[in-house]
Amino acid sequence: MTTESLLVLPGDEIDPSLIPTHKKNPLRLGPGLRHVPPNHILPTVAGQLVADHRKTSLYVEYNGGRYIPSVSDLVIGQVTRSAADLYYVNLNPYTPNASLPHLAFEGATKKTRPQLAPGALVYARISLANRHMDPELECVSATTGKAEGLGPLTGGMIFDISLGLARRLLMARSREAGGIAVLELLGAEGLAFETAVGRNGKVWVGSENTKTVVLVGRALKETDEKGLDVEQQKKLVQKLIKQMR
Amino acid sequence: MPATREPEADLSVLPKADGSARYSYAGYTVTGSVNGPIEAQRRDEHAYEAHVDVIVRPAAGVGGTRERHLETTLQSSLTQLILVKNFPRSLIQIVLQVESAPENDYVNTKLVQASLNFAIIPALLQTAVLALLSAAVPMRATATSAIVAVVSQDGASELVADPSPREVEAAQSVHVLAFTSQDELLLAESEGDFTVKEWDDVYDTAKRICCQSGATKGESIEMVLDEKGDNGPDMRQFLRSTLETKVVADLYWK
């Protein structure tokens, strides 16, 4: 669990007492930090330094900026075109396309593969990301061969959210750790919808009812833009539900 | 136009850009936006590092030779700050729109001759750094900048920090210096006649303005007491408090 936190700016010295140490486990550096050999750890972005002593990890928590792909992130992409054996998928405007092989779907063979037209949405995991190559995606788990919820997204609508909110929505306990309860509350009001959250700042909302899709999207965007806490989210949900009825 | 007015800044003012900032100080107001890393055009693409593209737009009219010169000056400084090696073949685009410049009745703002607009460099650099921090572009360090003019009065030369346009016009020499947060000199541009001794004095003054909170505590307090008037604001502290406000607002849920 988090024990210490403080504001850091790029190039700030980190007090060695804040860096977690362990007899056996090596220190793991998360986003926003870089190691300058031999023994300097410097922040690269402005944010809150979070040290996790149990996992011997150190990272900088921040919100904003452009999504930079990293391996095993779940993202929502839009197919731009199809090549001989892969789809070109856009994760972010004005960035090079990621590639999604035709065979990286559950149970896909040369003959039975999902046919995705340009503009189709896919929920995928990043399987390869490094600065010298364009990212690669997969819609199937390499170990189990199952889709595990990944694949084409049909119907519904995409909403853009901040990277920070996307990260909070993807937390295992988003209500307690991330302070985001708006989806739970909307579900409790009896709305039937499904969501997929992409780490690249996109949320897909799908439902039988178009009104529900728009309402859920609006609730998420308002929570993001106004920075609502759980109590305010409750009020917002009640207000939106009242408006819909 | 009071030169010692406190600097002001707002972060993330533009909704569509990856990062943006509006900064105003000493009569200048500049809005900057940062987008990146994005796909670079073929001709700008570099195999091993990101291309930093700086665009300066004047308050009125279209940019000319002076703006191109400001762009190259800023570009070389900002490339040193940004970790360009992290994003090969990409582009980091920084657009700086000047909104207002200090008004003055004495100096003709429409320059016939292509001459340098030194006084605006600190405002542009400061805005660019704030916008880059707002866009969370990985950087080596932050930077602060100051302008110092050497004015001769009754035979003795005097240093003026943040001079007004009138003072810039009358000054013997004008110097723009920028320092990184690790107290390294990042940018040094000078114009006019000056001696090595004068430059050393200018360097010390600019360093004090830029790196105050980096100096030892006792010393800096003494300086503030001594010459608060021409010492100018503590730029580094200003940068930190601006960012602190942003980070606290971003992480309200923690």
Termini distance of chain A? 42 Å
- Termini gap of chain B: 42 Å
Name the pair of protein chains with the most residues at their interface, and give those residue counts.
A-B, 33 and 40 residues
CATH superfamily name of the largest domain in chain A?
K Homology domain, type 1
Major sheet summary line of chain A: 6 strands, antiparallel
How many helices of chain B in DSSP terms?
7
What share of residues of chain B is helical? Answer: 25-40%
Q: Write down the overall geometry of chain A.
A: globular
The run of helices and strands of chain A is EEEEEEEEEEEEEHHEEHH
Number of helices, where a helix is a run of at least 4 consecutive DSSP H or I residues of chain A: 4
Query: What is the element string of chain B, with H for helices and E for strands?
Result: EEEEHEHEEHEEHHHH
User: Any guess at the CATH architecture of chain B?
Assistant: 2-Layer Sandwich
| Residues in β-strands, percent of chain B | 25-35%
Spans where pLDDT lies below 50 across 5 or more residues of chain A: none
GO cellular component, one term (chain A): nuclear exosome (RNase complex)
Domain Exosome complex exonuclease Rrp40 N-terminal (chain A): 27-66
GO molecular function, one term (chain A): RNA binding
Pfam families (chain A): KH_6, Rrp40_N, RRP40_S1
